[in-house]
Amino acid sequence: MIVRAEFERLELTLSEPFAIARGSRETTTNVVVRLTDADGATGVGAAAPSTRYGETPATVEAVLPRFLDAVESVGNPDARQRLERRLGETVRGNPAARAAVSIALCDLAATRLGVPLYRLWGLDPDAAPPTSYTIGLAAPERMGEKAAAAVDAGHDVLKVKVGTDDDEARVAAVRAAAPDAQLRVDANEAWTPKEAVARCGALADHGVEFVEQPVSADDPDGLRYVTERVPLPVIADESCRDAGDVADLAGRVDGVNLKLTKCGGIRETRRAIHAARAAGLEVMLGCMVETNAAIAAACHLAPLVDYADLDGSLLLADDPYEGVGVDGGDLRLDALDRPGTGARRRE
Fold it and tell me: What average pLDDT does the chain have?
């Protein structure tokens, strides 16, 4: 039985300023949930709320007491279907807060059984794709320097943020610094459909693998317009919050980027993955800029997807939690020597 449920706010500093088309940041705030059973076993999860999806640290902290009361009323961390139903009955929406609780419950349940999550789910650790490493917006020269440093650290897949008046120069600088890396670009809704078509044509000449969210999430027809006219596959991110959005995107894009924080936890993310597969869409598993208390759980789902973008904790100056090991971009699930998600507070 769960005997204690608690949470705390973490103010985390990034290793350097991180910029995307919507703005720049030097810090991020996570809210960590901790559940403890009668035998002293613990499960941890975390929320990285985004104002883009209507959540803040304050809204997460406001709703978590009600979520945790619901968890304690059920008590049994193995009764996940009942727990998820109770959470849904307690408060609608609030996916980041819900995700933190969902991750902590799964971590606790697997910890009690003494197995890592991927093994509990019967997933193949060798099927997990390597995670990309994100190169935030900066001057072209600086983006090239960051790309070179990432490659030196062993990262062979780079995700390049774009959405400026001179995107081609930035991607060209990254390509010059990392001639053998796989490059993906993410516009974070920055372009109009016609701009996206023009810019993707130019970016394709630099060996870009695909483009993520080229136009506004409020313009699904614009996504279709771009997908039908560019030489690159198009992946929807901001347009796809959960499984309910997948059907609307089928035929408009080539794939979707799913995140535990957007979907509202592990169970809902798995539903969205299966919905995407049924719709013939490729799947990326992404993250926010967040601690391993959240990202470690996503790593265990990685064998189910085509692409991983699970580098959020690598962008932090100091993550108070350790999680699944990352060797360059490879997720070392098979080397995990702890049960559950593997996320544990650093000593």
Answer: 96
Crossing angle of helices 57-74/80-90, nearest 10°? 130
Q: Is 164 helix (H, G, I), strand (E, B) or coil?
A: coil
46 phi and psi angles, rounded to 5 deg: -145, 150
- Nearest CA among 262, 257, 328, 316 for reference residue 292: 316
Closest CA to 323 of 72, 121, 127, 107: 107
- The pLDDT score that the predictor gives to residue 330 is 95
CA dihedral (233, 295, 249, 282) positive or negative: positive
Across the chain, the runs of DSSP E, i.e. the strands, are: 2-20, 23-37, 42-47, 133-135, 157-161, 182-186, 208-212, 234-236, 255-258, 282-285, 307-308, 321-322, 326-327, 330-331, 344-345
The arithmetic mean of pLDDT across residues 63-78, rounded, is: 92
Over residues 302-312, the mean pLDDT reads 98
In this structure, the number of other CB atoms found within 10 A of the CB of residue 64 comes to 22
- Reading the block at residue 79, the tokens are 């009764």
Distances, alpha carbon 98 to alpha carbons 21, 77, 101, in Å? 27, 15, 5
Ramachandran angles phi, psi of 296, nearest 5°: -55, -40
